[in-house]
Structure formats: C-alpha cells, structure tokens
Design goal:
Elements lengths: L1 E4 L14 H9 L3 E5 L10 H6 L3 E3 L2 H7 L2 E3 L6 H4 L7 E4 L7 H10 L2 E4 L14 H18 L21 E5 L3 H12 L3 E6 L2 H11 L4 E4 L2 H10 L2 E4 L14 H4 L7 E4 L20 E4 L2 E4 L9 H22 L1 H7 L1 H4 L2 E4 L2 E2 L2 H7 L11
Parallel strand pairs: 1-2, 1-4, 2-3, 4-5, 5-6, 7-8, 7-10, 8-9, 10-11, 11-13
Antiparallel strand pairs: 6-14, 12-13, 14-15
Helix pairs in contact: 6-7, 11-12
C-alpha cells in the first residue's frame, strides 16, 4: 500500500503523523511511503531522516494526497485538505467530529474511509490512541494553568506552590481519567492543593488507593463541583465521552461565582469544551477573558511539545497503521473490533453513533459496511 504523510497545516501544529522509525517499519513490511518535505521539522525530524528510513519526499501536499492510498496525519483535516481526499482513500488521524459539522459533511462528501484515533478502543475499555496525547495534555494543563494565573496574563497572581507562610493555590480537576490523573499528579508535584472529581466510584477508589494523600478526590455532583469551583484558583476540565460532545460543567452564569482572575483550562476543547464559555484558541493566542475569568482553550495542546508528542503518538498508532496497510482497512477491521470502533466515515456514510446523535445526522452500524 502507498502511505502518505502530509505536513500539518493547523496553526501552531508542529507534530507529524509518521516518524522516520514508523516509515522504516512500513517500508520493511513492503509498503511505499511518501512524506511531504519539511513535515517532520517541527518534531525534529529532517527530510534526510525519512530518506534514510526508505521513504520518498514529495514537494507538496497535493502530491502526497494524489499518490497515497492511506493518509496518516495528526490533526483533523483542514478545509483545503478535505478537498484533496478522494473516493476509496483511507484517512487515519484524529477527527473529533462531534462538535464539527463542517468537517463531518466534507468527509461524507469525499467518499473516503475515515478512521479516528480517538475512538479506537482496547480490551480494558480504554482509548489507546487518545491516551498518549491525553497524558501529554494532562501534564501540560497545570503548567499552562500556572502561566495563565500570572497577573501579567490577567490571572489572579497566585503561585500554585505557594511559599512558606503563604498557602498554595487550589486546583480543581474535573474528571479522573487519563487527563485528570496526569494533571493532578503534576499539579500536586508543583505543590498545589489539588482535588479531583469524578462520577465513577471505582475510579475514585483507584485514585485513592494509588495516590493516597498526594491529592484529594470527591464525587462530581453538580453541587459539589460548584462548591469546590468557588474555592479554586485553577480549574482543569478533563471530562470525556468517547466520540461525543463534552458535557458543559460550568455555565456562563456560574462564572460570577468563581474567584476573580481564576483560570479555566479546557482540555476537552477538541470535543467542544466542557465550559459553556469555551471556544478553541491557538498557541499563538491561547487565552481570553470572560466575565473576569481567564480561559485557556488551545485545541492542540500537545503540539507545544511536538517531539515528545510525536514519539508517543507514533508508538501507539504504528501497530494499527501496519494492520491497515498490510491487510487493507476492511480485513483489519474484521480482525480487530477495537480498530472497527475507530471507523467514523465510509463512502458517504456516518458509521459512529455518538457523532450522528451529536450532529443530528443519520448513521449506520460500522460492521454493516465491512
């Protein structure tokens, strides 16, 4: 199969969908690999690295899309990229369709087969291709939250770790999954007073057993969430409903109850955000203020640490990429029901129920198109 990797064009996105090591693995498996020139530079990989791995270098993205049977990326295809997709082509990347009707309609019109990293599952009920970026985003969240809290950026002017004689900042993490756990670990490591909320009692027991007194936890009822939000200097939104739009946890009216200059970091912004006042921002212009509350809502947070993120993502996606290339997407999905869960669009049909329900579009069962 011919695998193509274009350069990411979303603003301030420095990751790349294919590492030289992954390109080499694909070539060893007998596949042809074409990478757009400069695609890996943001993550520290040169064209020469890809050539040494056995890949060919294309001068333009148009050449990559025209030649490849399978396109591998990181971020959802932008409007100009969606126009380059064709009937029968396979797209393997993050999609986050539930809050994005324009992308969804374009992918349906393209005739392509689109498999989303974020809805591929595993035997433990996890999301193995989302997890690496969730780990990165979770660890970044307290770091960017601490920056947002600085007075020069509009925040409260609170140091998360405090100093002797001055109490540390209070951090509320809503969601105790991968993002929330990593966010809480780092925030606690910075010396903050951290509480994690979740609605799963087994998850709360796990957090208590593993992390003990490192940070506190509580049940995420509406009343408890707002009670702790009123006390917080930094609130990290870390909720996820796989493939679906994120629930809104704090309304605009409730912002008036928060501390002036408090910071909200919305890690769920790719799925529409978990605060009513959230809208996607970029690394170039990451924060904004609503009713005295600072919002950090960068939609590709892991892009800030592109090399770490690219290597972590590449480790996770490679086995699935090789399965798609070695077997073809249909057989690969027949052999792996977890990969089948990643199928969101095929030949003009929506094949993921949560997206259809979020956007009010008809959908079919993914197995029906195999």
């Amino acid at each position: 199969m011919h695998i193509g990797c274009p350069k990411e064009i979303k603003p301030q996105e420095f990751r790349v969908g294919l590492t030289p090591a992954a390109a080499h693995e694909a070539v060893v498996h007998g596949h042809t690999v074409t990478v757009e020139t400069g695609a890996g530079l943001g993550a520290g990989f040169t064209d020469a690295d890809y050539i040494a791995a056995g890949a060919a270098i294309a001068g333009t993205a148009e050449e990559v899309f025209a030649a490849a049977d399978l396109i591998v990326k990181v971020k959802e295809p932008q409007a100009v990229e969606r126009k380059r997709l064709r009937d029968g082509q396979i797209l393997f990347t993050y999609l986050h369709l539930a809050p994005d009707p324009d992308q969804t309609h374009d992918l349906l019109a393209s005739g392509a087969t689109c498999i989303a990293y974020e809805t591929v599952t595993d035997d433990r009920g996890g999301l193995p291709l989302l997890a690496p970026m969730s780990e990165v985003a979770g660890r970044l969240a307290p770091q960017v939250g601490a920056w947002t809290l600085q007075k020069a950026n509009g925040g409260r002017g609170v140091l998360l770790g405090g100093v002797p004689g001055v109490a540390p900042g209070r951090v509320l993490v809503i969601g105790g999954g991968v993002v929330g756990t990593h966010a809480a670990k780092v925030a606690a490591g910075m010396g903050a007073d951290v509480t994690v909320l979740d609605r799963s009692l087994p998850r709360l027991r796990y957090l208590d057993d593993v992390f003990g007194g490192t940070f506190k936890n509580g049940y995420a009822s509406a009343a408890n969430t707002m009670d702790l939000a009123r006390q917080a200097d930094l609130i990290i939104g870390a909720v996820l409903i796989p493939g679906a739009a994120a629930p809104k946890l704090i309304s605009r009216a409730q912002l008036a109850e928060l501390k002036p200059g408090a910071a909200l970091v919305d890690v769920a912004i790719d799925q529409g955000g978990c605060f009513e006042t959230s809208h996607a921002t970029t690394h170039q212009d990451p924060i904004y203020e609503v009713d005295g509350i600072m919002h950090y809502c960068v939609a590709n947070m892991p892009g800030a640490v592109a090399r770490t993120s690219t290597l972590a993502l590449g480790n996770a996606t490679l086995p699935f990429l090789l399965a798609l290339a070695d077997k073809g997407w249909k057989q690969a999905c027949r052999d792996d029901r977890h990969l089948l869960e990643g199928l969101n669009v095929h030949a003009g049909k929506l094949t993921y129920a949560a997206v259809g329900k979020a956007l009010g579009l008809p959908f079919v069962d993914a197995a029906s198109v195999l």
